Structure of DNA-binding transcriptional regulator, FadR family:
Amino acid sequence: MAQPHVRRGVKVGEAIAQDIVRKIGAENLQPGTPLPSEAQMIEEYGVGRGSLREALRILEVHGLISIKPGPRGGPIVAQVSADTFGRMSTLYFQAGRMTFSELMEARLVMEPVMARLAAERRDAGMAKTLGAIAEDTPLDDDGGYLSHSGDFHRFVASMSGNGMLDLFSGSLGYIFHERVSGLFFPKARRAKVRQAHAEIAEAIEAGDADRAEALMREHMQEYATYVKRRQPALMNEVVGWR
């Protein structure tokens, strides 16, 4: 029996959860991979059903596994996503009374840095895809415009080559847009946004890190100013747990 190493002050359920996460990483288990059954893990760890279920519940709440119901069900490795991380983060943001103004400020710091990194670490194929996302952004279709705009920023984050920045920025973007759903530039100004995205993409493709960073900062500052003007009370609102 592989008893989990339990550090002082850590519950058995938490120690098992930590061990399961280590195994997922060490064995490079992909999303959708079934984990051993409850009975197998009880035998493996030599613990009671309550401790094991506590461990699985911890991982499920944090979005690292899902539980498939039914006789042939059980724990399955989940896809780590910025949305899940964002929802989890809102609990701490609310407890710490952090505001949307602070969230926006964090995005204003992170997004230009990621644009710089994307240019410094540019991948020719990804840069062309980024340019196509900007070029293909529809102006008259609200859903299409919002989808392409979000895809553009997420793709820049992925091009940064920094997984933590990618995850953090994606989670902040998710939280913000969940709260201000439907608040985006009016159709009359969308062409300017599309042009800004195109120029950022061109700077990244050219490997011009200074220009990519400056353009992204200008673009994000313009959006922040627009949101503050349209919803001034939002900036002092505490981020709520979702």
Observations:
- The chain is about 65% helix and 5% strand.
